[in-house]
Amino acid sequence: FGQALRYYGEIDSTQDTLRTWANDVHDSAPHGAVVVAERQRAGRGRRGRSWLTAEGSLVFSLLLRGPLPLAALPTLPLAAGVALRRAAGGGGLKWPNDLLDNQGRKVAGILLEAELRGEEARQAVLGIGINVSEAPEGAGNVHSFRPGVTRAELLGELLAALEYWLNAPADEVLDAWRAVSVTLGRPVQFTPAGGGPRTGTAVDIDAQGSLLVALPGGVRQVVSAGDVELVG
Ligand code: BTN
């Protein structure tokens, strides 16, 4: 990964710039191509949120050329989270793949945008934003567990880790994810579609990477999309 790499000062979003490159008929980005930016004017987060590029942060997108079977997609975000945690050298993963520091502050986030065509994804663009040396108010940074690591070092190590984990067998990914999770065993709150917020205990992830939450009364709820909040 990263053999083909384009570096920009300021662009709207590395996700869009990489997709445009991937779809360029004359000079199409290969599998593993990377777009890195110093700043983004319109960085995107999960669930329609925006992503602010803090000073001293690393923001990039990675192209995964398909076709990828749809069944492989749910574990990709977890695999990316495991790679992120390994490269960052500390912290823990909040389901599905937010990296939190030891105080529970968010250090990095991952956004996977797949282009679906029938029963497969034609390609997917994986975007990662990491606070390296500084962080916006209330957030954490990688320097709290790896003082002095540079953005270039982190990018190189993370691309190598992604290359391994995105190709690893699902079982290995799920076990590695469980080992660095800060969600399992904890009380969590989530909001099912069309319902009010519910609280239970996160007990495990299933083979699809969904979170299993034990509700009072012994019912187990499968949470496959959206946000969970760690409570208590
Ligand atoms: C999240 O936690 O909500 C995911 C944040 C993902 C941010 C990264 S920064 C690089 C790439 N370009 C974007 O516009 N978003 C992702």
UniProtKB/TrEMBL annotation:
Residues 1-189 form the BPL/LPL catalytic domain. GO terms for molecular function: ATP binding; biotin--[biotin carboxyl-carrier protein] ligase activity. The keyword Ligase applies. Its EC number is 6.3.4.15. It is an enzyme of class 6 (ligase). The keyword NADP does not apply. Signal peptide: none annotated. Keywords: ATP-binding, Biotin, Ligase, Nucleotide-binding. GO terms for cellular component: cytoplasm. This is biotin--[biotin carboxyl-carrier protein] ligase.
